[in-house]
Amino acid sequence: MACTVYTTPSLSMPNPHLHQRQVIFFTSTKRNQFFRGQNRAFTVSCSAEAKTVVIGLAADSGCGKSTFMRRLTSVFGGAAEPPKGGNPDSNTLISDTTTVICLDDYHSLDRTGRKEKGVTALNPRANDFDLMYEQVKALKEGIPVEKPIYNHVTGLLDPPELIQSPKILVIEGLHPMFDERVRDLLDFSIYLDISNEVKFAWKIQRDMAERGHSLESIKASIESRKPDFDAFIDPQKKYADAVIEVLPTQLIPGDNEGKILRVKLIMKEGSKHFSPVYLFDEGSTINWIPCGRKLTCSYPGIKFSYGPDSYFSNEVSVLEMDGQFDRLDELIYVESHLSNLSTKFYGEVTQQMLKHSDFPGSNNGTGFFQTVVGLKIRDLYEQIVAERASAKTEAKV
């Protein structure tokens, strides 16, 4: 068997964006071999049956990817933390089961380089898709990689870090579904689709309140990125297995504050290992206002909708929530009317929501549907693992 270790050379070299590969040949069936090189030693795991499950999450910056990652890793257990003893500015998060890689690490141009060439980070010219593909493929096959680091503080490309192959690899960022080669490696894909009105409101809240930016600079930043977003980021949603679409509420006429949200969970039919969640009766068209004795609702209330639809010529099921919860402990009433949630026990969605009640979006459909998708991904992972175990048993027979 031959295993390939993908590495990134020192950034002090003449061309730091070239990548190298070192091939190790095994003459035995041992799963682990010791590798020494580049002043470090590590173990290469080569197991044909133990492939990593790869999840892709696409969205523009400031659209809730980090919160979604925290909800997802929590479903699998264990806190997600940066690699121990590594670069304190690493973007990678590692838990017991998952490793989350930020695709900003595959920028081929640092902040100064992008400014000199007049391109944004959204432009494919500012990213190394060859290296992205090779390293995601290696990790999927159980092979460690030396992954580059894009430093968001300095805007520079830092020396690489060693990433071991996890049980579940999540690649999140601007372009997880842009390159067809990378897209074909994904076992499941999600797109966070934030409407322009809501995105603007969120960026004002984040960049003015937390980062001290002026309203004018925020508007200028959004406008400068919009052409590249429309050309390279937004089209990826047509490839997603699930889309979480965030829109202004329809419960308050003319509302533009972005505090009350209408959120759609768009689920593609026919995706392997994923069956859509439904409300009351699968395939029906339903509008439901649950406010009453079992669900406390202050103005403007809550409305749920569910039904079949078409999305980029794909058949989908759409679950929608407009409004927000007053009391998360009452969410179990809504949960009990949803089917196909892939929960382990009654009330698990509500438990997860209460566990992270301080996360952004916990009182509306963004947090609710992120939690639902997280549980569906856990189910997808368990199905894939069970299939591989069954295939391995059959092969021995």
Secondary-structure blueprint of this entry?
Blueprint: E1 2-7, E2 20-25, E3 32-37, E4 40-45, E5 53-58, H1 65-76, E6 93-94, E7 98-102, H2 111-117, H3 129-140, E8 145-150, E9 157-163, E10 168-173, H4 180-183, E11 188-194, H5 196-209, H6 215-233, E12 242-248, E13 261-268, E14 278-279, E15 286-288, E16 302-311, E17 314-323, H7 331-335, E18 338-339, H8 348-355, H9 365-396
Supply database-style keywords.
calvin cycle; kinase; 28% helix; ten-stranded mixed beta sheet; photosynthesis; 397 residues; single chain
Output the structural class: alpha+beta
CA(first)-CA(last) distance: 23 Å
Q: In one word, what is the shape?
A: globular
Helix content: 25-40%
Query: How is the main sheet built?
Result: 10 strands, mixed
Q: Provide a count of the helices.
A: 9
Number of strands: 18
How large is the share of residues in beta strands?
25-35%
How large, in whole angstroms, is the Cα Rg? 22 Å
Strand order, sheet with most strands: 6-7-10-5-11-12-13-17-16-15
- The residue ranges in which pLDDT falls below 50 over 5 or more consecutive positions are 4-48
- Give the rounded overall mean pLDDT: 86
Order of helices and strands: EEEEEHEEHHEEEHEHHEEEEEEHEHH
Protein name: Phosphoribulokinase
GO molecular function: ATP binding; phosphoribulokinase activity; protein homodimerization activity
Pfam family, one: PRK
Keywords: ATP-binding, Calvin cycle, Chloroplast, Disulfide bond, Kinase, Nucleotide-binding, Photosynthesis, Plastid, Transferase, Transit peptide
